[in-house]
Amino acid sequence: MIVPSLIDLGMRPFFQQQLSLEELESSALGRVIELHKSEAVLLAGSEVLRFKLTPNLEPICVGDWVVFNDERLIRVLERQSLFQRKAAGSANERQLIAANIDTVFIVSSLNGDFSLNRIERYLALAKETYVEPVIILTKADLASDADAIRDQVQLLDSLLSVHCVNALDSDDIAVLKRYCQRGKTLAFMGSSGVGKSTLVNGLLGHDAMETGGIREQDSKGRHTTTYRAIKWLPEGGLLMDTPGMRELQLSDAKEGIKLTFAEIESLAEQCRFSDCQHINEPGCAVLRAVDTGELSTRRLDNFQKLLREEAHNSATLAQKRAKDRAFQKMVNSVQEQARSVKKYQ
């Protein structure tokens, strides 16, 4: 592929219909393929362009479609999908992870770092944005119980695509290439050290990403991807590698959580009380399912934990947005008063 078309980059009617006639005549369209602290890198046809990020530009992330001219980025087109989270730490900020994704590879290794709870977190993010999730379990060559662990993951959702792979085996990687077709954008999510960069290199056919080792004492990995970047795949798709996320906190993802735990939502409809919290209420169908073994205690506990976390994070972000609006209103009022005073001087 020498000069990629907009269709190669993932252009579709959803984005095209957002452009005005004026923008079509006087501006150009590009897709963000890399994002650094102070600049964005766009791909627009055969050109790779760099633009400084200005304070007045709305938040931007890898995968965005943007309108630009020779001097600056003008605006970001409405996104078809967006992965975001509450920023790591205590700051009440939202962090954009990836935009306009078609399929997300949720990667977990089959070593001591494997966690069903963590996979459910990523599934909640994917289902909130209606992006197709695919579970990739790596280091299959080092695990004696790979099939048993795969069965555990499959029990989360019978329709979920789950693959056990050795990221260094080209035959194992080949099964993933059907997700990598022309115009499709894939994202990788998972903790550090689970083999995301090795998978990226395998899909690309060459070493484009540095790979890092695992600390033997706790099976934790080192971050080997320092920024989000889109790479071309031989099959014509685009692949995004995201930094390892050690702290994934949910916000504005209530619907995604409910879809991830759909069987609990279905059971809840049979509870005696419509506002049942599934703690110790009489006539609770969810607790009855736990007692009979139909539902695991682990899964119910994680469902309730994620709902509490999502409610807390969404509330704090909403409060910050309200404060920001109030501050901007005050600034606008002061500026208007200053203009009025200057006018009559």
From TrEMBL:
Alphabetized UniProt keyword annotations: Cytoplasm, GTP-binding, Hydrolase, Metal-binding, Nucleotide-binding, Ribosome biogenesis, RNA-binding, rRNA-binding, Zinc
Subcellular location: Cytoplasm
Domain EngC GTPase: 99-246
EC number in record: 3.6.1.-
Binding positions for Zn(2+) per the UniProt entry: 271, 276, 278, 284
Keyword Transmembrane in annotation: no
Domain of life: Bacteria
Matches recorded under InterPro entries: G_CP_dom (IPR030378), P-loop_NTPase (IPR027417), Ribosome_biogen_GTPase_RsgA (IPR004881), RsgA_GTPase_dom (IPR010914)
Domain CP-type G, first and last residues per copy: 93-248
Gene Ontology biological-process annotations: ribosomal small subunit biogenesis
Cofactor binding comment, as recorded: Binds 1 zinc ion per subunit.
Statement: the UniProt record of this protein carries the keyword Cytoplasm: yes
Record-listed GTP binding positions: 138-141, 190-198
GO cellular component, one term: cytoplasm
One of the record's GO molecular function terms: metal ion binding
SUPFAM superfamilies xrefs: P-loop containing nucleoside triphosphate hydrolases
Cofactor requirements of the protein: Zn(2+)
Family: Belongs to the TRAFAC class YlqF/YawG GTPase family. RsgA subfamily.
Protein role: One of several proteins that assist in the late maturation steps of the functional core of the 30S ribosomal subunit. Helps release RbfA from mature subunits. May play a role in the assembly of ribosomal proteins into the subunit. Circularly permuted GTPase that catalyzes slow GTP hydrolysis, GTPase activity is stimulated by the 30S ribosomal subunit.
Oligomer status and interactors: Monomer. Associates with 30S ribosomal subunit, binds 16S rRNA.
Protein name: Small ribosomal subunit biogenesis GTPase RsgA
